[in-house]
Amino acid sequence: MSAPVLSPRVKRLLPWIVAAFIAVVPIFAGAFTITLMNYIGIGAIVALGLVLLTGFGGLTSFGQAAFVGIGAYAAAWATAVMGLPPFAGLALALALTAAVALFLGATTLRLGGHYLPLSTIAWGIAIYYLFANIPSLGAHDGIRGIPPITVFGLSLAPNTSIYYLIFALVAEAMWLVSNLLDSREGRAIRSLRGGATMLASVGVDLFRMRMLIFVFAAVLAGLAGWLYAHMLRFISPSPFDVRASIEYLLMAMAGGAASIWGALVGSALVVFLKNWVQDILPHLSKNATQLEIVAFAVSLILLLQYARGGVLSLLGTFVPRDTTLPPAAATGLPHRTPPAKGSEILRVEGVTKRFGGLVAVNNVSFDLQAGEILGLIGPNGAGKSTLFNLVSGALGINSGKIVFLGEDMSNARQMDIARAGLARTFQHVKLRPGMTLVDNVLLGVYIRTQAGFGKCLLHLEREEERRATRVALDALDAVGLGGKAMELAGNLPLGNQRVLEIARALAADPILIVLDEPAAGLRKGEKDALAVLLKAIQARGVSILLVEHDMDFVMGLVDRIVVLDFGSKLMEGTPAEVRASPAVQEAYLGGVA
Ligand code: ADP
Ligand code: MG
Predict the structure, then answer these.
(1) Which of 386, 425, 554 to mutate to test the pocket of ligand 1 (most atoms within 8 A of CB)?
(2) CB-based pocket (< 6 A), ligand 1
(3) Among 351, 362, 376, 385, which is best to mutate for testing ligand 1, by the most ligand atoms less than 8 A from CB?
(4) How many CA atoms lie within 13 A of 186 on its CB side?
(5) Is the pLDDT assigned to residue 593 strictly greater than 50?
(6) Ligand nearest 389 Cα, by number?
(7) CA-closest residue to ligand 1 atom 27
(8) Distance between CA 553 and CA 576 in Å, rounded?
(9) Alpha carbon of 569 to those of 13, 98, 214: distances in Å?
(10) Which of 159, 185, 298, 376, by CA, is between 20 and 30 Å from 103?
(11) Is the whole model's pTM more than 0.70, yes or no?
C-alpha cells in the first residue's frame, strides 16, 4: 500500500478549512460569484438527500425538484399570498414535503424495483403541471413579491446575507447526515444497497428504513425550496420540472454518490459546468437550450462510464481510512433469558415448499430442543437451504406449520422471526465488504438497540452505541477475529468471512443459530477451530441448527441428525444411528457432492 497523502490530522481539519474558506468568500468575491455559490449551497442540500437516498439507500428519485418546488411554493404562498412570516412558510414547506413523501412512499416503496423511479417521474411531471395551472399560485407566471427572510430583525435580502444562512444550513444538514450514517440506523441505511436479504435476517424493517430516508431526503429538498424562494423573491414552475430533478441526481453522483462531501462537490461541479456551458453554447448554436440538455446527458453518461463513484472516489484513494477502534462501554447490553434446557424451541410440522412444479421441501417434520445442536444433512439439491429459508422466514411455506418458541411463525416476516431470537448465516456469505468487521457485527446488534432516526440524527444515542460496540467487540473476540476489528470485511479470506457471519449472529443474542454450510471452503485446521467455537456457543445455552456436507465434521459435533433426500425426510437419529443406516448410505453414495 502506498503511503496516504493526507495525514489523519489534516483530514480532521479539512471540514474547518472548507468552512473558513466559505466564510471569507464574500470578502473578495463579486456579486455574481456569490449568486453562484448560493445556488451551489441550495443544490448541495438537495443533493445531500439524494446521496442518502440513492448513493447509500439504492433508491432513485426523479422527483426531487418537485419536492423543492413544494417547499418553494409553500414559502411563496405563505408569505406573498397569505402575508405570514417566512418561518411559518418554512414550517409549512417542511410539513407539506414530508406529507407528500409519506403518501408517495406508502404507495410505492413496498413494491420495490422500478416502481419508485417511475412513480417519481410521473409525480414530478404532475406537480409541474399543477403549479403551472393553479391560478392562486400564479399559474405559468408564478408568484412575485416574496419577502426576504429576517433573522433577529436582520433582513437577509442581500445575496451575501442569505449566503451565510444557506451555508449554515448546508453545514447543519451535513452534520445531521454524518451523525445518522455513523449510527445503528445509518449502518442499516449503508447496507440497503445490495444487502436487503441480510438486513431482513438481522431484524431490520426494510420498508420503514426506506420510508425514513425517502421522507428525510424530501424534507431536505423542501428546505432547499424555501431558501430558493426567499433568495430569488420570485418563483415560477419551470425550475421544478423533471429536467431539474435530473440535474440534482447528477450533482449527487458527480461528487460521490456515497459521500457526504460529494453533495457539496457535485453541486459545485454542476453549477459551474452549467454556467460555463451557458456561456459558450450560444456561440456555437442558436438552439442553446436544447444543446444544454445534450451536454448534460453526455456528461451523465461519461460519468457513469468512467467515474461511477464520483469525483471524490478518485481522490478517495489518497485519504487514509480511519482505523481507530470506536469507543466501547465496559458492559454490553442486557441478555434474553434462554428457555429451559430440553424445552422445545423449534417445531417444523409437515412443511412443504414448491417452486413451480418442483417440490423442494416435501412434508418435512422435526423439532429442536433448547441446548441442542441439530444437524441437517443430505445430498446437493436435497432442499436443505430451502428449509433454512422457510424456518428463517426468507421464503414462505406452501403448507404445514413452523412453531418457534411456542409461537406459530409459519409465513411470519423474516424481521419478526429475527427479533424473536433466530439468527442465521448464509451458504453464500452475506457481509458488507466495504464496512469494517465491527460495523458488520454491529448489524447483528441492531435488534438489541432502540435509538430511532431522530436520536441518531442528533447523536443522542452514544451511550447505547458504546454498549453495542462492546457487544460487537466481544463477539469478534469470541470467534477469534478480535485483532482485526477495523479491517474491511471484504479483505478477509473466505474462512474468516464465514466466522464473521457467526460473530454477527452471536451478537444478536439469539436463542437459535441457523448455519448453512459453515465449514464449506474451510481448511482442516479452520474446521477444527469452528467445531470448538460451535461447542462453546452451545455451552452458552444457544441452540444450533446446521447444514453441513462434511460428514466427519457433523458426526463429531451434533447431538442429532435429520437426513433429507429429494426434499423428503429420509430419517432422523443420533450420529451413530444415521451412520449405520443403509438408506442413508445409499442416498449419499448416489448423490454426495
Ligand atoms: P440444498 O441446499 O440441499 O443443496 P436447495 O434447498 O438449495 O438444496 O435446493 C433444493 C431444490 O430446490 C433444488 O432442486 C433447487 O434447484 C431448487 N430451488 C432452490 N431455490 C429455488 C428457487 N428460488 N427457485 C426455484 N428452484 C429453487
Ligand atoms: Mg444449500
Answers:
(1) 386
(2) 355, 358, 360, 378, 380-386
(3) 385
(4) 22
(5) no
(6) 1
(7) 355
(8) 14
(9) 63, 52, 46
(10) 185
(11) yes
Nine-digit cell string for 134: 393553479
Question: What is the per-residue pLDDT for 276?
Answer: 82
Confidence of residue 109 (pLDDT cuts 50, 70, 90): confident
CA 441 – ligand 2 centroid, Å? 24
Ligand nearest to the CA of 359: 1
Q: Whose CA is nearest to atom 13 of ligand 1?
A: 381
* Residues of the chain above pLDDT 70, percent: 96
Is the dihedral angle over the CA atoms 496, 498, 504, 508 positive or is it negative? negative
Contact call for residues 489 and 433 (beta carbons, < 8 A): yes
Specify the ligand 1 atom closest to the Cα of 564. Answer: 3
Name residues whose C-beta falls within 8 Å of residue 329's C-beta, 6 or more positions apart in sequence: 463, 466, 467, 469, 470
In terms of CATH architecture, what is 344-589?
A: 3-Layer(aba) Sandwich (3.40)
Can you give the pLDDT at residue 3? 44
What mean pLDDT do residues 521-533 have? 90
Q: Ligand 1, residue 567: give the atom nearest the CA.
A: 10
Query: How big is the chain, counted in residues?
Result: 593
Residue of 249, 252, 97, 258 whose CA lies nearest to 189: 258
| pLDDT digit string, tens, across residues 363-391 | 999 999 999 999 999 988 999 999 999 99
Lowest mean pLDDT among 206-220, 290-304, 453-467: 290-304
What is the Å distance from ligand 1's center to 115 Cα?
29
The CATH number of 8-318 is which of 1.10.10, 1.10.3470, 1.10.260, 1.10.3230? 1.10.3470
Q: Among residues 100, 97, 77, 99, which one has the least CA distance to residue 88?
A: 77
Asked whether the predicted pLDDT for residue 19 surpasses 90, the reply is: yes
Name the residue at shortest CA distance from atom 16 of ligand 1: 381
Give SS3 for 547.
strand
- What is the per-residue pLDDT for 589? 59
**What stretches of 356-489 adopt beta strand conformation (E)?**
358-369, 373-377, 399-404, 407-408, 422-424
Lowest mean pLDDT among 193-202, 318-327, 422-431: 318-327
List the chain domain ranges: 8-318, 344-589
